[in-house]
Design a protein that fits this description.
The complex is a heterodimer of chains A (about 725) and B (about 375). With about 725 residues, chain A is mainly alpha-helical. Chain A contains 25 helices and 4 strands. The termini of chain A are far apart. Among the domains of chain B are: about 130 residues, no CATH class; about 120 residues, Cytochrome c-like domain (Cytochrome Bc1 Complex, Chain D, domain 2, Orthogonal Bundle), CATH 1.10.760.10. In chain B, about 60% of the residues lie in helices and about 5% in strands. Chain B contains 13 helices and 4 strands. The chains are: A mainly alpha (about 725), B mainly alpha (about 375). Chains A and B meet through helix 2, helix 6, helix 7, helix 8 and helix 9 of A and helix 1, helix 5, helix 6, strand 1 and strand 2 of B.
């Protein structure tokens, strides 16, 4: 190797700069939207009575913006910077880099537009409609080709641990995205999930959980493995720990999805797998934390002075906290308390604000002065950012933990006579002060981030950006003979494709073992003969329910607890969801469960729903639900019904030819029934300027709500 | 610093002004004024401590200059701050006990307050310290091995089985990635055994629930319901006269009527109107009833609801006594003619004592029968 001559080449800093700017920009946008929706829960008038700014549409925008725009660009920034240096090679193809960058920004813009316009698949963190899904796949492949091109043209024989994480991330995210996004297009911006009910839920949470694992965790661990040793100027603590925790982490993580579905209609065995793999995940997760924190051994003096290290230390600590808490929340008895409450929200924000946010800030504070050949404009501001941000996290998390716990206790509290102690609305009112304090936490965090943006901008202005950074390294000789004994894993580190395939096999295993039986074994989803497909009007109403993002606040999953069956009615059965493409179980109860909204226990008059949707506060004083006034002006799109029914039939919903051919008139007939019923009560209705009309969207929504949970009431009791 | 505190306090107090509004909402323990008082105190305390700590640091600034070892002065600061914090906190706890509100939620809040106090205190301290230090200390890129070793703790080295920093060369691999080197410390034993324990837990968990007959979700649910049934039965056997639809009588005691009015406002007014004038639900102030106008009829309608209408069953929401109170309250509104009253629905009902027409009675019982079908 010594006699090989040095090659001169240039690192592409320009692409890193692009991604860094995008990270900061989308970070601010994502956090701002988060702050807005947090405030909407305190002050419902902030929904402004406009469809596009309603909570149900902005919440997916917030989650998508933070995960895929902020952290997504953060990943690419970190990867494009570290990959080139760790491999001693320029990115393989500049054009691909540019396509990747601009393609990803296009996806973000399209996502933002379509989500507020109400185009959504209704599956959390996978809300984007099918044309955007395809675009994401293409851009992800571009990223993969560019990354592997760089790996193949490297001047470093072995792949560093950061790159293992990047490879694992790439292949797993590709798999997750493709499998979960299999959907049948109905029209240009509308599709139905291929899977239904329990199966859709399993696939979705396999995806959703691993979006956390392989989008928010593994790439960031890779970034940690590059930037912490660089910033601390210390060797990585333990190579063998890297090996063990990497492989254990990717293998075990993928199984844990069902812990989002404990006590639901998912078969018990799958739930248990989710629980035990979550518990086994503690050590592999902590392996990353240990390796990060112990790398700082001997550098703790500097941690106190160096804001970059401070951000990174808090980030890694937050990671450790969140990855310990997560498995605890996966225990059945803890989950029975935490699920559907704001506890979960607190948990994810410790991860998002602490781990992802702070690590990103640390990297930015390190990277920008470096690439612009200067020092940070103001260390004082950066230090302020650190403390404001930390305080923000605390003010966010502590009230939410406390409130989530209380929320759950209130839901479960009974009087000695056996009645529920609290109406759901009481719990909503209880939450509002906590939502308010949480918003303050969010505001502080955002202010800190903005302070950083200004600081970095000033830093860039005072320096000179080096777009092409010169470097030298000897060319890699093929087929070198290894002398002496070497660690077995070193061999794998020389073979990127072996690593890719090995990662894929490991991550594919867990999903397959959980999914295949759930799909193939009939006993897992016992059929209920009384369960019938939605009528055309109900189907349309369901699509409106999805469009408005009702699932962001309302669950449709009654768990087998006394406190839930007493409040909502019989607990949900797997067989009830067989025609639900997509499932709408939800993950949060800001409002009550709606699985049996039309059932015996909760059934309300059409006029109740009509007034409630027009002005929730008029019926439920103290409600924080937004008004949906536009549904009293927009007309039902009957014309799209035949295509929708046909798509459903393709997916296996047993509509008869008669129903297919007459779906429009069937829908109109049902709408007329509801209209006639409402007409009787017209004097007491809260009407829009358009008055009571048979073809308003609200009629379809009422049809759907009144249908919810009625099937099972028809089954005779055993 | 000062501005920041002011802004923060501003935001807090606006939150609290708002929060104190919601005191009036209901009488539940969670909306007790004391609860908000506690929240208020918690926040106020944070502010006081923060300010106090600021003053303290200002006073000891001279010391900080003289003694380079800043840890000494900080150690001196802690007890004072803690004592200050605890004394106030103690007052709250005393207040809590005094008021007899030693309930779990309140205690939990108190606990949270304590934690919050400690944490924010720590951070406030740190903020102060950092604003003092950042500009004074130059960042140093390189430190000697011995200097680095000083900052490691022997306990942690032992706990993690780490090689001492001075001996690190012995476990340094020959890896070098863009200047990043890798040590090859052995796996921390606690981590390895922790991992084993979780694996054993996993095996045990699966075996218990899926091989040795651990309860399924459904069985857990049944057990829960059976247990509840037993508890309720026990409670009811202790309560002498739990009313039901056969034994209920019209209550005229003002406290019952008031209690009924409260329940009515929180549960019934959304459909029947705050004056029972009828909105989407029927007017309850006239003499016309869809499902019977006698106290027993009302009780029954409330308890079981009416299928196919918007009237749900309230038996899982309110107790029998509350149902009797609400029903009595509603009957007390007969003939009140509230503004905006909805037109009559159902059939005219006259109390049996006033009714002189047997024909009408027959009519009513017929409609009752059909309605109750």
């Amino acid at each position: 190797m010594e006699n090989n001559k040095l090659e001169k080449f240039y690192y592409d800093n320009n692409i890193v700069k692009h991604f860094a700017i995008a990270t900061a920009l989308w970070g601010a946008v994502g956090m701002l939207v988060g702050l807005i929706i947090a405030l909407q829960l305190v002050f419902p008038f902030l929904n402004f009575n406009i469809a596009e700014t309603t909570y149900g549409r902005l919440r997916p925008l917030h989650t998508n913006a933070v995960i895929f725009a902020f952290v997504g660009n953060g990943i690419f920034m970190g990867v494009y910077y570290s990959l080139q240096r760790l491999l001693k090679a320029r990115m393989w193809n500049d054009t691909l880099s540019k396509i990747h960058f601009w393609g990803w920004q296009l996806i973000i813009v399209l996502a933002a537009l379509t989500l507020v316009l109400g185009y959504t698949t209704g599956k959390e963190y996978a809300e984007l409609e099918w044309p955007i899904d395809i675009l994401i796949t293409l851009i992800w492949v571009v990223f993969g080709i560019n990354m592997f091109g760089t790996i193949l043209t490297r001047r470093e024989r072995h792949l560093y641990v950061a790159i293992w994480f990047f490879i694992g991330t790439w292949v797993t995210v590709a798999m997750l995205h493709i499998v979960n996004s299999i959907e049948l297009p109905v029209s240009f911006m509308k599709s139905y999930s291929w899977y239904a009910g329990v199966q859709d839920a399993l696939v979705q949470w396999w995806y959703g959980h691993n979006a956390v694992a392989f989008f928010l965790t593994t790439p960031y661990l890779g970034i940690m493995y590059y930037f912490i040793p660089k910033a601390a100027n210390r060797p990585v603590y333990s190579y063998r720990l890297s090996i063990i925790h990497f492989w254990a982490l990717i293998f075990i993580y993928i199984w844990a999805g069902p812990h989002h579905l404990l006590y639901t209609s998912l078969p018990d065995w799958a739930q248990s797998l989710g629980t035990v793999f979550s518990i086994m995940l503690i050590a592999p997760s902590w392996g990353g934390m240990i390796n990060g924190l112990l790398t700082l051994r001997g550098a703790w003096d500097r941690v106190r002075e160096d804001v970059v290290l401070k951000f990174m230390v808090v980030a890694v600590t937050a990671y450790g906290m969140a990855t310990f808490e997560g498995p605890m929340l996966s225990l059945k008895n803890v989950n029975a308390i935490s699920h559907f409450t704001d506890w979960t929200i607190a948990h994810v924000h410790v991860g998002a604000l602490g781990w992802n946010g702070f690590l990103t800030f640390g990297v930015l504070y390190w990277l920008v002065p470096k690439m612009w050949g200067t020092t940070l404009y103001s260390k004082k501001w950066a230090s302020w950012h650190f403390w404001i941000g930390t305080l923000g996290i605390l003010l966010y998390a502590i009230p939410m933990y406390w409130a989530g716990w209380m929320q759950s206790s209130m839901w479960k509290e009974f009087t000695p006579e056996g009645q529920l102690q609290y109406q759901f609305l009481d719990t909503v009112k209880f939450m509002r002060p906590f939502y308010a304090i949480r918003s303050v936490g969010g505001l502080l965090y955002l202010v800190g981030a903005l302070l950083m943006v200004v600081n970095l901008w000033k830093t860039a202005k005072q320096g000179n950006f080096v777009p092409e950074e010169a470097a030298e390294a000897p060319q890699l000789i093929k087929n070198v003979i290894v002398k002496g004994k070497e660690h077995w894993h070193r061999v794998v580190e020389r073979k990127p494709f072996t690593m890719l395939v090995l990662s894929l096999v490991l991550v594919a295993l867990g999903g397959m073992i959980e999914m295949i039986p759930t799909f193939m074994v009939k006993e897992n989803i016992p059929t209920i003969t009384a369960v019938k497909p939605y009528t055309p009007l109900e189907l349309e109403g369901r699509d409106l329910y999805i469009r408005e993002g009702c699932y962001t606040c309302h669950s449709q999953m009654i768990r087998p607890f006394r406190s839930e069956t007493e409040r909502y009615g019989e607990y949900s059965k797997a067989g009830e969801f067989v025609y639900d493409h997509p499932f709408q179980w939800g993950s949060k109860r800001t409002g009550p469960d709606l699985a049996r909204e039309g059932g015996d226990k909760l059934r309300r008059m059409n006029s109740w729903h009509y007034n409630h949707m027009m002005d929730p506060g008029s019926i439920s004083s103290g409600s924080i639900m937004p008004a949906y006034t536009w549904m009293f002006e927009n007309l039902i799109d009957y014309e799209c019904l035949p295509a929708k029914m046909k798509a459903m039939k393709t997916l296996g919903v047993p509509y008869t030819d008669d129903e297919l051919n007459n779906c429009i008139s069937l829908a109109q007939l049902q709408a007329k029934g509801i209209y006639d019923d409402l007409k009787k009560d017209e004097k007491n209705l809260l009407l829009s300027e358009d008055g009571l009309q048979q073809d308003h969207e609200i009629i379809a929504l009422i049809a759907y709500l009144q249908r919810l949970g009625t099937d099972i009431a028809l089954t005779p009791k055993k | 610093m000062k501005k920041f505190s002011i802004i923060l306090i501003g935001i807090f107090s606006s939150t609290l002004v708002w929060a104190s509004d919601s005191k009036k909402i209901s009488s539940s323990i969670y909306q007790e004024p004391l609860f908000y008082f506690l929240v208020f105190i918690a926040v106020l305390l944070l502010f006081f401590i923060w300010q106090f700590q600021k003053v303290f640091v200002a006073i000891s600034k001279e010391k900080v200059r003289k003694i380079k070892e800043e840890s000494n002065t900080l150690k001196n600061g802690w007890p004072i701050i803690l004592i200050f914090g605890m004394s106030d906190y103690g007052k709250i706890l005393g207040e809590l006990v005094h008021r007899g509100l030693g309930s779990t939620p309140m205690n939990a809040l108190a606990f949270i307050v304590l934690i919050e106090l400690a944490v924010v205190l720590y951070y406030a301290q740190q903020i102060r310290r950092l604003t003092e230090k950042v500009e004074d200390y130059p960042l140093y890129e390189e430190q000697s091995v011995d200097e680095q070793a000083k900052s490691t703790s022997p306990f942690w080295n032992w706990f993690n089985r780490s090689v001492e920093i001075q001996q690190e060369a012995s476990i340094l691999t020959n890896h070098d990635y863009d200047g990043i080197q890798e040590l090859d410390n052995s796996l921390p034993p606690w981590w390895v055994y922790g991992f084993y324990i979780t694996i054993l837990f996993a095996i045990g968990y699966m075996a218990y629930f899926h091989m040795t007959g651990g309860p399924s979700s459904e069985q857990e649910y049944k057990a829960q319901m059976d247990q509840a049934a037993i508890e309720i039965a026990e409670y009811q056997s202790q309560m002498k006269d739990a009313v039901n639809e056969n034994t209920v009588v019209l209550l005229d005691n003002p406290s019952d009527i008031n209690a009924g009015a409260n329940t009515f406002q929180s549960l019934c007014a959304s459909c029947h109107g705050s004056k029972a004038e009828g909105v989407v639900g029927p007017n309850l102030t006239d003499a016309f009833w869809k499902h019977g106008g006698e106290i027993k009829d009302l009780f029954k309608t409330i308890k079981y609801g009416v299928k196919g209408t918007g009237m749900k069953s309230w038996k899982t929401d309110i107790s029998a006594a509350q149902m009797a109170q609400v029903a009595s309250y509603i009957l007390s509104l007969q003939g009140s003619h509230p503004p905006g009253a909805k037109e009559p629905e159902g059939v005219l009902y006259q109390p049996a004592s006033l009714s002189d027409s047997t024909e009408k009675n027959a009519n009513i019982s017929d409609t009752l029968k059909t309605a109750l079908k």
